[in-house]
Amino acid sequence: MTLYVNPHIIMRLNKLFGQFLILSSFLYAGTACAPAGTEDRAESLADCVNPFIGTDFTGNTYPGAQVPFGMVQLSPDNGLPGWDRIAGYFWPDSTIAGFSHTHLSGTGAGDLYDISFMPVTLPYREADGSLGIHSKFSHSEEAASAGYYRVRLSDYDIRVELTATPRCGVQRYTFPKADAAVFLNLRKAMNWDATEDAHIEQVDSVTIRGYRFSEGWARGQRVFFCTRFSRPFDAMKLDTAAILRKGRQTGTSVVARFDFQTEEGEQLVVSTALSGVSMEGAMRNLAAEVPDDDFDKCLASARKVWDEQLGKIEIRCEDRDEQVKFYTALYHSMLAPTLYDDVDGAYYGPDRQVHRAEGWHNYSTFSLWDTYRAAHPLYTYVAPERVNDMVKSLLAFYEQNGRLPVWNMWASETDMMIGYHAVAVIADAYLKGIGDFDAEKALEACVATANLDDYRGIGAYKKLGYVPCNLKDPYNADDWSLSKTLEYAYDDYCIARMAEKMGRTDVAEEFYKRSQNYRNVYNPRTGFMQPRDDRGNFVEPFSPDDYMPHICESNGWQYFWSVQHDVEGLMELAGGKERFAQKLDSMFTYHPGADDELPIFSTGMIGQYAHGNEPSHHVIYLFNAVGQPEKTQRYAARVMHELYLNTPAGLCGNEDCGQMSAWYVFSAMGFYPVDPVSGRYEMGTPLFPEVKLHLANGKTFTVRANGVSRENCLVKSVQFNGAPYAETYITHEQIMSGGVLELEMAAE
User: Fold this and answer.
1) What's the pTM value of the predicted model, to 2 decimals?
2) Quick one: pLDDT band at residue 42, thresholds 50, 70, 90?
3) Distance (Å, rounded) from C-alpha 358 to C-alpha 672?
4) How far apart are alpha carbons 656 and 104 in whole angstroms?
5) Spatial distance between the Cα atoms of 73 and 99, rounded to a whole number of angstroms
6) Nearest-angstrom CA–CA distance, 643 and 637
7) How confident is the model at residue 1 (pLDDT cuts 50, 70, 90)?
8) CB 625 within 8 A of CB 618
9) CATH domain 64-313 topology
10) DSSP string covering 545-602, please?
11) Is the pLDDT of residue 16 over 90?
């Protein structure tokens, strides 16, 4: 998901992107990582990560500390609301107003920012409005790597360092000699978020606990916490205020102040555990993961787990920027989904009941419209054990909510975006033989979700073979009917593939038939997919250039290709291979006018191709289907080199919980899942001389690109395990069997 934006909020982003790159030409100033693949790495792979990538322009990433797929995302907040500050932090800003424990990576939807701390010296700076208590800071006194963030609050001369465990955030403040204080603000809310109730209580001289309940994108969000200071506070003061709804008190907001007398260089460690269940659960999480006040120990652990996770893919490359780009992309791809159970397995479900994960871990934050495309297929190689737990999490959500999630977090279904793409994640795992989840229950959940007649036009889709554009959808201001039809058709194909392998031929036949519904919205007169009303009439007037409420964050050009499961069938509709190839060429050469104003989600434009949003992501690889792989290779290389940069503005669109980066990771390895459940990966152009994918089965799949460079991006010949290889794709089975894919590269 990029974001549902009011269509009147538009920007000339195709022009502005270049301007932002110039204005934000910051190069990561952290320690340079040693070339990956050397026998003895002087630096860890965690140092090859630049978390500032994406914090400018439209990336909406945060620079703070997190472990892979962790519940805690401890990161600075600039203190101001707005689209640019969806992730809490925006590179051009110069203020910090707190360090909160929950954030969303590039979603385009503003929520979370829970359990926010701010250290100060007295007197402190406080502004009216949303900024509140804050400090100035400078990027020259700021640094970050995987699992670590550091900044100096210049107004107070306090150095703040952040690290994390799976369920805890750990802060270390280095003070001057001063009357000092630490604020804990459970009142503040930004963007879509609103505090509903909050509570803080003292446990002992160093420990507090409480909760923050909020309403926003996540409905009925409950965050419990427990915090331990490394030394007793001198005093605790609470500022409470009534929360009024329609003239009556419905809750309480609270800000706590903890006073300290500090000496020059004195350090205070503040360790905070989260729970979605209870304060007692948070206390158990804290005791289990951070039993003592050792910041360095937690940091070393975070770096170790990142090194292990990032090391699943080993690259040979001498160019520092290219190393940082790759490992930052791999890092960004593994910030979500997020862990969502306590150390004892307890978690809060969408049915508002406490459940327990027995022998598995529950996960949340599934941005499925985005991540089914490449992020989840990537996890099947770099984190297959988590894939099993993710599928079990999706199935638990189904059991407790009556349908699989569309976009869920913190026990809430946000109903953002479209499709029932959890079925793609489930089917991919099943078809690859990953995990021990109940396949029968999984198929049941997929079929039940695909047959919810009263949800988002599914009933009409089943009856008419498409979602009509004049059907009112209470979940979206725009109807997105055309996009729903195409997304549902793909998901139906996923169900059919899974059912077929399970021997459920009745289900397979039904859903294979449904997967052809994409044909019902093709208008042969215009040559594009086109919205239809419930009488079968195509919407007029229609231009594929137009961004309309019937198409989700895209136009007719961009959604035409959303038939990943039946490219041959789409080719037939378009008039055959030659006509399809011509149309594909036009996708990349038919540019918007110089004065055209594009919606906020149309960024990273090459012709009509919009790399800044997900529906375009597979289109580059379709040239393979028309016998023109050199075009796939040229365009893939162009996107990797021009639209992914080691700068804060280095992402051309929302990160979207890992999808933007997962595209890069796959493409840099030299292949990409056009159809994510097919087990087939279309070959493009590798970015590095050698990539090794270290698999959970102990084998290694190697891609070797002899002579590769920015200029030498064309594949002239291919060998697999020493034998000539003529296909333009590789398979999951070939990857998992290990071996060497060797390519000879050239400029022409």
Assistant:
1) 0.95
2) low
3) 35
4) 9
5) 10
6) 10
7) low
8) no
9) Beta-galactosidase; Chain A, domain 5 (2.70.98)
10) T-B-TTSTTSBHHHHTT--TT-HHHHHHHTTSHHHHHHHHHHHHH-PPPTTPPEETT-
11) no
